[in-house]
Amino acid sequence: VASGIHPSIYAYNAALLACEKSKRIDKAQQILQNVQQFNVKPSLYFYTTVMNLYSRTDQWEKAIDTFDEIKKSGMKADLKVYTALITAYGQGGKWRDAITVFQQALASQ
Asked: Helix and strand tally (H, E) in the chain?
């Protein structure tokens, strides 16, 4: 990035996945800022990884906010996104919401 060359969304996906696996929310925040700063269009995979990271680091509400970003972007949630959302609600003790999302996921398929 310093040399003016910007990574593709695939490179960002890989870096974000590494952060998710190691629960490095601080480094993930830097990646998220870069994606926004350089107007890189996030993929569904990218958003799902963000949701999983937030759930793994007890920030389940941010995972739900990320789902809202997916909807605003016009992307169609897939089963992996719904699973990440159900997990987030589970982390927050919102089992009724988790069941509702599960039913939505079944209906969307």
From this structure: 6, 0
Q: What is the end-to-end Cα distance of the chain in Å, rounded? A: 39
Q: How many residues does the chain have?
A: 109
Distance CA 19, CA 41 (A): 19
CB-based contact 20:49 (threshold 8 Å): yes
In this structure, what are the phi and psi dihedrals at residue 39, rounded to the nearest 5 degrees?
50, 45
CA 83, CA 86: separation in Å to the nearest integer?
5
Give the whole-angstrom CA distance, residue 90 versus residue 42: 25
Q: Which amino acid is at 12?
A: Y
List per-residue pLDDT tens for the chain, 109 residues long. 556 778 899 999 999 999 999 999 999 999 999 999 999 999 999 999 999 999 999 999 999 999 999 999 999 999 999 999 999 999 999 999 999 999 999 988 7
